[in-house]
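User: For my dataset I need records formatted as: sequence, then C-alpha cells, nothing else. Please produce one.
Assistant:
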Amino acid sequence: MKVRTAVLREMGRPAPYARSRPLDILERDLAPPGPGELLVRVRAAGLCHSDLSVIDGTRPRVMPMALGHEAAGEVVGLGAGGAGFAPGDHVVLAFVPACGACEPCRAGRPALCRPAAAANTAGTLLGGARRWEPLDGGPLHHHLGVSAFAEHVVVSERSAVKVDPALPFDVAAVFGCAVLTGAGAVIHSAHVAPGDRVAVFGLGGVGLAAVLGAQVAGAASVVGVDVVPAKLDIALGLGATDVVLAGEDTVERVRAATDGGPDHAIETAGSAAVLADAYAATRPGGTTVTAGLPHPDAMLSIPAVSLVVEERLLRGSYLGSCRPGIDIPRFVDLHRRGRLPVERLISHRLTLDELNEGFDRLAAGEAVRQIVEL
C-alpha cells in the first residue's frame, strides 16, 4: 500500500529546520505484515528529543530512516501468527520490541532485550525484515521498530500494547515514550517512596512525566530544574513544589530547596554536564538516575570516592526500566483515575507537513509534547 511518511536522508542539517528541511514527506510502498507483525493505522505520534537527536546527529542511526518512535493507532491487519490482536484493537507502540525469550527478557528487563537492540541498531523490525520500499538504491530503515511519522506502519507484535479504546489516541501516544521513560524512571529505576525528596533535571515531555510520576510515588517534594523559564511554570502547574532556573548556582539552589539535596535526582536532558549537576546535588545515601541520551562520545567525571563514603547510587534508566505490556495499562489506569494527567503535557498539534517546524519549536524549548494527528 502507498503511505505518506517522514524520511530523514541525512543527519546534521543545520537549524532552523523550517529552512534546511531535514525531513521529507514522501509517499512510499509499505509491504504487508509478515509473521508476528501488525499493520497499524497511526492516529497520533509525538515529537520527542530522541527524534531530534537523530536529526541533529547526537544519536547516530543508519540512514535513510522513516523517523518517529512514540505513537498510538489502530490495528488494521495481521501477519501470520498474530495471536492476541485483532483488527480494530487500539494500541500504543513501544520503542523496544522485546523478544520475551532472551536472558534480559526472562529476567524481567525487556528494555535490555538483545535481539531488540540489534534490530533497532540495524533499522529493522524485530524479526530482521524491513517493510518500507527501498529509497535511493538502498533500504529505507525503520526507527526503533516503529517509524511513527507515517499514516500506516508495520511493526512487530512485540512493539504493540493493547489499550482501552476509550483513551483518546493523542493521549495514548504519550504513554509510548514520555510516560514510560519519565514516570518509569521515578517508579522503577529510582524506586521513589512516600516522603522522599525528588529533583528532576530537564523539563521536556519525559521530565514533566517524571514530575507526575514522583507525585504518584508519594514524594514529599518535587523540584523541577530547567534553563527555560516557561518550563518551570508548567512544572509548578503539574504539581512541582519548587523550581530552579538552571545556571551557575544550580547545585546549591537544588540542595537548598530539598534541605541538603534530593533523595533522588532524575536527569532527562541528555547532557553529561546536567547529569554531573544532578549527581552533585544528590544527598549522601541518595540515588541519581539518568534517563537522557547524550552523544555516545560524551563522558562523565565524578568523585569516585563519593560512591563509597557517601553510599551513593548512580544508575541508568532505559524505557524507564519498564515492562510495557504491564506498565502501559497500569499507567493508563492511573490516568483514568486522575492521578497521571498526561494530557496536560500536550502543548501543540500539527500535521506531517509541519514536522520540520515542530522540531524547530522543540529545539528552542518552546514545546513539551507536540502531537502529529493523522
